[in-house]
Amino acid sequence: MERLRWGMIGAANIGDRDVIPALLASETADLTGIASRDIGKARRRAEQYGIPRAYGSYEELLADPDIEAVYIPLPNHLHKPWTLAAARAGKHVLCEKPIALNAEEAQEMAEACRAAGVHLAEAFMYRHHPRIARVKEIIASGEIGELRGIHSVFSFNGAAQKENIRYVVEWGGGGLYDVGCYPLSAARFIFGAEPEAVTVQAMFSPDHGGVDMMASGLVEFRGGLSLTFDCGMWTYYRNSLEIVGTDGRIVLDHAFLPPADGDGITVYTGNTTRKEGPYGVNAYVRQADQFARTVRGLEPAAFPAEDAVAGMKLLEACLASARRRERIVLSVK
Fold it and tell me: Which parts form a coiled-coil structure per UniProt (predicted)?
């Protein structure tokens, strides 16, 4: 297929560390340009990676007719305005998670991209890793019996970085938005359903802009299924996912940031332990390839924009539960 010509809106660390190398490694991508409000920074990044074009503004990149798709790694509060601007310019959009500040914003973004005829996807790269599909295969096979629940944790300690943008409430800061969104999205995907209610307890830190620095919660699904999780930015690093059934369980270490040499799964049944993998797959490359194939009309979107809207509804409910200290019932169609 013809390579998809990408532009980077912003020079965020995640782009430098993960996404730019993935686009350069992908056989479906052509990283054509990068924009920063600091032209010097854009030029340095372009020179570093051999990116042909550097722009001193996001508007300049969007005006380039050679750019077909953009990746947006900007702070959360900028996701909506630049997604809408990209849609108006006819660019397909891969937007970092969480896709917006709330479900209303996400819905507006989805509708704008649909009206413009461009593809919009939320950048949960781990969902494109083959081990996630393999987990669902194992569950469907009945090997671990009837599904009973999921437990997941994702945390790190960044509390010393007081000036971090993650600590600005108005910009969509907080642990739930930054890392809690991963267990929430995983549970929705593995259960194949939307939750009925949530109860979340959180620690809001006045020393970090009043954002949630730690949170733990219960997410209720139909049939007595549930996700229990904790997440945060002020504790030891953890990153795991456990799916429990009546006859076994599946464990994913490095669940949401899988390294190529540690991206396998472990299945426990009876007295037997089986390891599968490592797969040696770069999930960022897989994400870019799936996005490109959708844009080229070769396959449907793995996760349509409506999935991101539903994810934001759950995130909003979790934060509301933590702030109000009460169980929040969600309307499920």
Answer: none
